[in-house]
Amino acid sequence: MRARLGPVKRVRWLLNVVPRTARAFLPGLARPDDAFAREVLSAAEYELYLAMDRRDRHHGVAVARAVLALAPDAERLVVRAALLHDVGKSIAPYRAWERIAVHLYTPPRGVERRAGRWTEIGDRLDDAWRRHRDHAERGAALIRDAGGDHGVADIVARHHRADALRDPRVALIARADEGR
User: Fold this and answer.
1) Which domain holds residue 34?
2) Nearest 5°: CA angle at 104, between 103 and 108?
3) Which of 84, 86, 140, 173 is most buried, judging by how many CB atoms fall within 10 Å of its CB?
4) How confident is the model at residue 1 (pLDDT cuts 50, 70, 90)?
5) What is the pTM of this model?
6) How far apart are CA 153 and CA 155, in angstroms?
7) Rounded to whole angstroms, how far apart are CA atoms 13 and 132?
8) CA torsion, points 41, 58, 153, 106, in degrees to nearest 10?
């Protein structure tokens, strides 16, 4: 668990762990609303969305709907960024245990080689940590390269950066993402 969670955020995080853990092991439990995404995203962005794991699509839709619940008049650009905020994770599949491990803890840059020093499992964990840590920037590049909206890409690139929370669009996605 992240070290600086207050009591309310800790409860939200714990309530989120059970269904996310279940979906990690049983991907069929994820029910992404692809029709909703198709209505909101451009054609190029929708192709990227479909390349995402169904669990990540489910999560993206949940975050986009939470954005709309928190701000019914949210810019369409923000809803699109919410749907695609984890598209950078689509470059390689996560094993169930990797999904759980990176959700519980991802070390800061430069620390990843500690786990993989001795074992194949450690190497896999290092790769999973790297993918998780770099997914925002990688997702933004995927969106730009596919011909998606650069505004969407910019929000996706910054959605985990603390300094970006001054941007109300990024802050809205971060808030919507908290308990999903």
Assistant:
1) 7-177
2) 85
3) 84
4) very low
5) 0.83
6) 6
7) 18
8) 180
